[in-house]
Amino acid sequence: MDAQLWIWIVVAIVIIAVIVAVVVYGRRAKNAANRKRAADLREKARADALGAHERNAEAARAAADAARAESEAERLHKEAMDKQRAAERANEVSQDRLRRAEELDPDAGNRSDQTGAEGRRDRDDDQGDEEGPRSPRP
Question: What's the pTM?
Answer without folding.
Answer: 0.44
